[in-house]
Amino acid sequence: MGDTRSMLRGLTVVLRRPHAAPPAAVRCVSSGTVDITVPLNFWAGKRRTSHEKGHKENVYEPATGRVLCHLEPCGAVDINQAVNAAKSAFGHWSKMSGMERMKIMIEAAHIIESRREEIAEMEVVNNGKSITEARLDVDSGRLCIEYYAGLASTLAGQHVQLPGGSFAYTRREPLGVCVGIGAWNYPFQIASWKSAPALACGNSMVFKPSPVTPVTAVLLAEIYAQAGAPDGLFNVVQGSQETGSLLCHHPDVAKVSFTGSVPTGKKIMEMASRGVKPVTLELGGKSPLLIFQDSDLENAVRGALMANFLSQGQVCSNGTRVFVQRDILSEFVEEVVKRTQSIEIGDPLLETTRMGALVSKPHLEKVLSFVEQAKKEGASVLCGGEPFVPSDPKLKGGYYMTPCVLGDCTDEMTCVKEEIFGPVMSVLSFETEEEVLHRANNTTLGLAAGVFTRDVRRAHRVVEHLKAGSCFINNYNITPVEVPFGGFKMSGIGRENGQVTIEHYSQLKTVFVEMGDVDSLF
């Protein structure tokens, strides 16, 4: 294991990179270095130092537990400057044609593709997920920008013919300055998913990443600027709840899009309501995965693993309530446990690693406490659920655990009712379709759901009755950018991705044109 040293302004960061996996396309590649630069705030075309002179927050590397850098939270002065920069850019960007916006967005996508390895490594260092997954996340962000670049030139209204030669038409217009607030599990991808439709519609954006993973959003801001976007089109402000509150309450913000927990989503909706601002909320889930006895068992096992262990289980749409029809329960559990125990845990920068570190020490402790609570309530730990210490001494301070499968679960257990947001699968048995549908829907959340069966009629019948916004048949956690993603019930409002998201970042203006005389009652 070699060390790659990168100099920050006033701070040295050591990026671990295995000898076996040299970077393919990275900035400053001659010496194998990756340039991480602070400060991490960005508005009006360049990185900015916060005007707040108070407490700086530590940013950690989950794989090692070391301090990666320090975060400067933004205060009221910074937020005003960022929003004003976005407001200024909006004036220019909104007047450009869709084709002009498309060209800049496509150029941004090309830059992302050329810097794929660098961005992915930064994601790994700051988030803890495996390099294999991080590359796919970067690809998803790029594809999203490409997709909405293609839609930018297609935005159009409607012409309606009226009596007497009069007519009306509609215009689809941008909202103005939009705010995006991201989560820590997919930092770069979420920044791309929120900015792409906003920019395609002619809006500008101020984006606040999670303070836990602040590093890669600023790379996206620099990429948009390099692609030719006006200064202030996409801005990044760092901070926690106070910074988010300032953004939501700002009078020049037209819309707020948030990804995160249900409690925080409620607060954001409340704050936005004071200004009657539209919101998009992509919140938590406790999603069911239904596996019927006629399923292709191999695919069902693969689907269950994908539904629970991507990104160390830190995925809002995960199908953590795995309902298995009783006749195949023992066979399914045996295979799932065997596959789970073989998952390679360790250095997320290694190509062979399939599960890296959880995002923070407090979060690791929280997930492990759920496993302990499950045992107290009668669940059986079939495998995993324990702290894990890699053999590499550099990783001994990291936030690792073994992926866990819980058996003998019942609907009333905490592990079945509450979102754990970690690598913990709860397996439950069922007898009939009617029974499992009732149990699957017995939750206040409704982000996702899945069903495995060879019976096509049953598959569509079951999906029709599942109360969830994103449903999967014979697969799980597939999120192509062409398809809308979002939840029912308390899992959120609005959608990310797909054509429908254009409606969430634009507004309709109706214009009536009279071609004759006014027919007045007075």
UniProtKB/TrEMBL annotation:
Gene from which the chain derives: aldh9a1b
Residues of the active site: E282
Subunit architecture: Homotetramer.
Record key words, sorted: Cytoplasm, NAD, Oxidoreductase
Listed Pfam families: Aldedh (PF00171)
Pathway: Amine and polyamine biosynthesis; carnitine biosynthesis
Name the UniProt record assigns to this protein: Aldehyde dehydrogenase 9 family, member A1b
TM helices/strands, residue ranges: none
Origin species: Echeneis naucrates (Live sharksucker)
Family membership: Belongs to the aldehyde dehydrogenase family.
Catalytic reaction list: an aldehyde + NAD(+) + H2O = a carboxylate + NADH + 2 H(+); 4-(trimethylamino)butanal + NAD(+) + H2O = 4-(trimethylamino)butanoate + NADH + 2 H(+)
